[in-house]
Amino acid sequence: MSIPDVVRLHPTPEQYAYAFGGREPLLTVRPGNLVELTTEDCFGGLVRGVDDLPSAVCTFPFLNPVTGPIAVEGAEPGDTLAVHFVDIRPARDWAVSATFPLFGALTATHTTAMLHPALEERVWMYDVDVAAGVCRFSARRSDLTVELPLDPMHGTVGVAPAAGEVMMSITPAAHGGNMDTPEMRAGTTAYFPVNVPGAMLSIGDGHARQGEGEVCGTAVEAAMETVVVIDLVKGLAPASPRLESDTHLMTTGSARPLEDAFRMSQHDLVTWTADLFDLEALDAYQLVSQAGLAPAGNVVDTNYTMLGKLPKSLLDGRTAYDGLHDRLRGVAEEYLRSR
Amino acid sequence: MSIPDVVRLHPTPEQYAYAFGGREPLLTVRPGNLVELTTEDCFGGLVRGVDDLPSAVCTFPFLNPVTGPIAVEGAEPGDTLAVHFVDIRPARDWAVSATFPLFGALTATHTTAMLHPALEERVWMYDVDVAAGVCRFSARRSDLTVELPLDPMHGTVGVAPAAGEVMMSITPAAHGGNMDTPEMRAGTTAYFPVNVPGAMLSIGDGHARQGEGEVCGTAVEAAMETVVVIDLVKGLAPASPRLESDTHLMTTGSARPLEDAFRMSQHDLVTWTADLFDLEALDAYQLVSQAGLAPAGNVVDTNYTMLGKLPKSLLDGRTAYDGLHDRLRGVAEEYLRSR
Amino acid sequence: MSIPDVVRLHPTPEQYAYAFGGREPLLTVRPGNLVELTTEDCFGGLVRGVDDLPSAVCTFPFLNPVTGPIAVEGAEPGDTLAVHFVDIRPARDWAVSATFPLFGALTATHTTAMLHPALEERVWMYDVDVAAGVCRFSARRSDLTVELPLDPMHGTVGVAPAAGEVMMSITPAAHGGNMDTPEMRAGTTAYFPVNVPGAMLSIGDGHARQGEGEVCGTAVEAAMETVVVIDLVKGLAPASPRLESDTHLMTTGSARPLEDAFRMSQHDLVTWTADLFDLEALDAYQLVSQAGLAPAGNVVDTNYTMLGKLPKSLLDGRTAYDGLHDRLRGVAEEYLRSR
Amino acid sequence: MSIPDVVRLHPTPEQYAYAFGGREPLLTVRPGNLVELTTEDCFGGLVRGVDDLPSAVCTFPFLNPVTGPIAVEGAEPGDTLAVHFVDIRPARDWAVSATFPLFGALTATHTTAMLHPALEERVWMYDVDVAAGVCRFSARRSDLTVELPLDPMHGTVGVAPAAGEVMMSITPAAHGGNMDTPEMRAGTTAYFPVNVPGAMLSIGDGHARQGEGEVCGTAVEAAMETVVVIDLVKGLAPASPRLESDTHLMTTGSARPLEDAFRMSQHDLVTWTADLFDLEALDAYQLVSQAGLAPAGNVVDTNYTMLGKLPKSLLDGRTAYDGLHDRLRGVAEEYLRSR
């Protein structure tokens, strides 16, 4: 095994995109390429201290910048784009989180419209220590600090939507986007349906770590230095993005209400299980019901995201996408050893 | 430490209850008592083969029998009932699962009313091997079998509801009930709000194992031989049941829609975190957002159940309920050693 | 036509019920009887001025008193209880409305749990002028007054639930209960599924008028002097309560989320339409889709209520329940003439 | 009063748009202009008989064509675009409705994902008699025909979205779009928030009539000859589209879940009421709660739409937008007299 070509993508500030769809590629790669890229945090790097309120320093709709789009040669509608995360590394020794007016799971929002005034907008700065593998929470109204394990991931990964739509980068949907699941970490392969020629992959919204649900609306937001391997499976486009780690097959559903996000993710897990085990639908439904997991991704964005997870220990030698995850994992290890 | 008094409760068939509330106790215990009890499966043991369709052999509303109620001396409204699961052991070498007409997450139901005919009603029989720690799924439309780890738990645990209400045992709500979370396993302590004198605890609906969400509507349903320690905390009644394992603090929300179940569980996790860390509310909201987990319990019952989970590794010596879980864990270990 | 027997039911304060189910009848009537009854307002008459905050003067769970239950001779599970509202008349020259902490459509609630403090609890007193047919809104933070037409109705009408359940009177469900639809006015016949022998009808929660959705959580709450004719249809129990006015057939769905309440009400409207027109299901679905109405009942209670409505002008001579509404209308007119 | 300039817009087949946003104007008008335009039906006129199944004769995403965009001189982000419907007239003597696989309120869908096979796809042809003011439903599985009153309206009316988004024409949201409310009929003025220079108005999806909720997913779909007056209010952009008829002020909320659509519509009705009556927010909440209506628009599209309605009889001389509706009504009458 040899390391494939490595391509670099470091956008200038004016090159960031804020939407999926409707934009020319910043870069074109071939299936199999490794891409080293940088991403800015969801506030565009403008929130640098507790007095930098996002609503004051950021300007709608210039929120949640993404790096891309990256065109993939040969990708056609109906294909499956595989993106394996080799490395996701915080680029700074700090990260930031915040409440934002009328955004979050435990607050009135523009759609869950209420007569309450918005909750206080507040910023939290985190120390990030990559070597020690921790980030440090500091309370704002007391002296408490709590060390939390680093678990870097990308909240926003996706391709251009179907039907010529252009969607803000804060929206998760069938094209991926802002799913905000902590499972999008290094070691994971994500599979996206290709909707337009070239697929048009974009990546952003790094989190030093994130709880399930992203309850307050933001994670430990961090600029990232990220490495991915990009590959292509002809045909087989999933209904919604799928993920695969060394231990689990994962499906996603991004929709509102939350039960529909759940239904979509479990429906696709049943479909995938039926396919892998050559099972009739109700038999797969039964197996998933007893063996599956169902964690929340986000319950704050314009669509909510739920995940379905099946342990690969059940597969007994069966592999998804003809073993692509393992092959990409091998490429990643080779790259990391050689770096 | 000595083993507390052990009380036994083995209901006769006609003694099972099918509701929470409105019923005289089968047994009265003192705080600290160990109770060895038996529970029947959710079908009352009537589904014993793939041709025993639940809709034919069971009679509404005689579904989901529970063992109890157990009155606890000294329990008053506003108190907290602690139930520590010492052991949950399948009573038979088989268990059963089924689809049931118009019940489940991926089917039309009586409330998610649609014009589709009901999905097929189908029964799956599982072999249960307690010694080996596995149960075996057998597909009905192919020869596939899959061994799954045993992970015994109770789907239905709760107390009498407030306001004189009587609720079918299939409903989860603030009183507990049919929350159907796999976290209700041996080693876990559950905390319930006491609504009536004596609390009136009932337990049923054993599962040899269950996936998160209980997607098809039933788990690997099994009669159980179960041991609990029951204890009482004066005052401090939580809004909804809480759970504690050796590794996590857990909150629950049982409601519809699913986002409300999520909101309730996360709201209580913020409240609990604020209390344990002496944090102001938004600071606790921030910490939970980055450190918490959010798995589904059930997304099929008359209310859905979501969980919030916080790793106890963050607590740095802080304890919930003055260390009650650890004390009950100690009692459980002593009992198990002596058995 | 002669006026049927008139029975009177004027509960003493201690006779009011606060739940459906689990209670002996206050009165037993025969099918065809007219009943003159009185109901107290949802606050038990305790909120009599703008300083009487409901949370201070009322005691949970003694909210929303209902008059009943009334047992109906011969009513058996599976039958249909018909309740025709002959007259609903405010008993006082004032009525009252209020916001209540964590209750309403545009506020955080116990289930739509949020970190906002509760909205202000505030009381509004209305002048009621039955002769003029108006009630007068007076703003609390300005001098504005607005005259609104009287349109008296009952928010809470229902029978004992199935399965031995006892439900607080504030909950609407398949048994009726607190549906809070302005369609429950004089001239309307309501049809309920009978779940227990005697049906056990209770009525309360009079409103001098109410907007659709009952947005702030309470209507123009008024004690009432009400007259109903009670009748019985053997069999034919609907899935959820139905209503019939001189102009419309109406179905209800009471559930959460709101789309399920909508689905239930429209599903039953399709079922009813298919039955009346002898139409296949998809043909009825099509006709309802073009001819039906879908107003909200309440979007604040423990279940939400939506209505489906079909204009009777389409029926071309077809009648529901063999013309029962017209017959009860005739009885009502005879009674009103003779009074 | 004189009739303003009349402009005509009759798109060729290739000129139809299928999205809001991202497109150059077909026409530019001045505020005050009358526009006579034609629209094709939601199937692009391709479903012309019961054997023309939409999924066979239509090609995704070429569904729901809209006429436009029409740029309005001087319209700037933050302004309010007023569109008064002068006339909406079916262009043919037939119209069509259909079920479509996995689309509708009483069926599994791509998001309310279930294991049921799709309901049957079926087409209904309607006779349209403009002179008699009726359209005729014919059942497909029986000989039943039912005459329904014509009540022509447009399901899809909106402007370019904010943030550079491009949305399929089947989506309703803050920009309007496919709200599918029967209130969008001749005699109504609709007010839209302007998001981009020129506003970029598009109109399509005519319905000979539609029930509330558009339950089966389609209305009585018809090509239309429509006349609108377009006007501009500087500033005052509403959060979501508002409507005004001679009798009611109306607000809309387009979102999922349905309770959020309800909350948005009622929140804006409270805001509008507070503004018109100079009322404090809770006082307006109270008044709306007793006087408002809350019908469904659609409960089938990618977002659901609910309406809030307040009778103008309460306004006692107050007018919205400085009486603009009455002025446009006057223009419309003048035009209709002169035609």
From TrEMBL, chains A, B, C, D:
One of its GO terms (molecular function) is hydrolase activity, acting on carbon-nitrogen (but not peptide) bonds, in linear amides. Transmembrane segments: none annotated. InterPro entries: FmdA_AmdA. This is Acetamidase/formamidase. It comes from Nocardioides panaciterrulae.
